[in-house]
Design brief:
- About 20% of the residues lie in helices and about 30% in strands.
- It is built from two helices and six strands.
- Helix 1 crosses helix 2.
- This is N(Alpha)-acetyltransferase 38, NatC auxiliary.
- It comes from Polyrhizophydium stewartii.
Length: about 100
């Protein structure tokens, strides 16, 4: 079976490969499917949604996602609605823009 190195590297970056094996990483990722995830981007925004997958480039895909502004943000009231959040459907967060997960 052909392994996908970017996917495995992304899983290891998420701290999912305890033993360093590719199989272990994939199994741990499968255990996270459809579970709620919280991702902070490098610009301070927070996305909370259900983990759907990592693509081959290591981008994380979340469904039923809400976006919260950075703490201390004086954002436009038109951009962030009730309780300072935006509701999205599916979002793709690239590996480069993720700070914490």
């Amino acid at each position: 079976m052909d392994e996908q190195p970017a996917l495995v590297a992304a899983a290891e970056g998420l701290g999912l490969a305890a033993d360093g094996s590719e199989t272990g990483s994939k199994e741990r990722l499968k255990a996270l499917l459809n579970r709620k995830a919280r991702v902070t981007t490098t610009d301070g925004r927070v996305f909370v949604g259900f983990f759907v997958c990592l693509d081959n480039s290591g981008s994380m895909i979340l469904s039923a996602t809400e976006e919260f502004p950075p703490s201390g943000c004086r954002c436009s009231p038109l951009r962030f609605t009730i309780l300072h959040r935006l509701t999205h459907g599916t979002v793709i967060l690239t590996w480069a823009e993720m700070e914490t997960y």
